[in-house]
Amino acid sequence: MVVGSQSVTGDRRVDEVGGGNGRKGDPLGVPGSRPVVRSVRDPRAGARDDGGVRDVEPTAACGLARFARRVAVACRAVLPDALVPGSAIPEPGTVDYARSFFPVALVVLLLRSFIFEPFRIPSDSMMPTLLDGDFIIVNKYAYGLRLPVLNRKFIPVGEPQRGDVVVFRYPLDPSVNYIKRLVGLPGDHVEVENDRITINGKPVQFDVTSRYNDGCYVNFQEATEHLGEHVHQSLLCPVPLEITPDPPPGCNRKETRGYLCGDHAVAGLFGEAAKFSKDVPAGMYFMMGDNRDNSDDSRFWGFVPEDNLVGKATRIWFNYDLQRSGGPKWSRIGKAIE
Hints:
Blueprint: E1 3-9, E2 12-17, E3 36-39, H1 58-78, H2 93-115, E4 116-120, E5 134-139, E6 145-146, E7 153-155, E8 165-169, E9 177-184, E10 189-193, E11 196-199, E12 202-203, E13 206-212, E14 220-227, E15 230-236, E16 276-279, E17 284-288, H3 298-301, E18 304-305, E19 309-319
Antiparallel strand pairs: 1-2, 2-3, 4-5, 5-19, 6-7, 8-9, 8-19, 9-17, 10-11, 10-16, 11-12, 13-14, 14-15, 17-18
């Protein structure tokens, strides 16, 4: 065995032992050789806690590092990533789904809070404009952007207009949403008598066009009304209705309503409807249903504060009533709300 060399650097002395071929031993580069690296005690170390042993020579350390990298590369070529030490651990599927779902949920939340919100019509009070089972889109920024919880307007965009179909929080129970047509603006003087409306002394154009019978509502009248910029249809009975607990035979509705419109000969049995005549206070609105004789509205419980407004109903996007046979009414899908 031939001693190749001996070097001392500072306080470190390392012996390099070569192979039998007389060359200096490259720990990883000489075939047939077996590298031996010895760490020699530093005589200047004295009684050190670490025994005076210094690190091995850097060339050997680098060679071992290269060898370790080659082994790792070979392992990755034959083993799955999950089995290679140091490889990334795959995330559970639920984490990936949650990451993908979060942006969608955020967009939906923002849309519902500030832009559009869907509602379902649960009653007949807005017939024939809206039917029980209509699913509608409400424009929530039509009257200004509002804070979702406080419902306070922070960006004014537009103002309610006479004739708009409006979703609002019921003044007597703000947890319940109502939908009616806006009839009276702040400062208006509104009169309602025999289902006809007069605003600030001017009668609203109201033309009876035909009889209305749908198997539930019998002998009603359908009329065309011009309210502001809106032209829409309304239902009325020319005589006061008797509220019946049960609908007529064959009617698939279950609400307590006035379904049967009599004739003038028996009008005195129920008396005449009281005339409504009031001024709309500042910051308030007067609302009525299009089904004039089957609507619980401002004539009975008062005005709607501006802070209770939710938005303007704009379009029907679906229709399905579980209590009605025959499935969805496809002709109503996509219909604009006048």
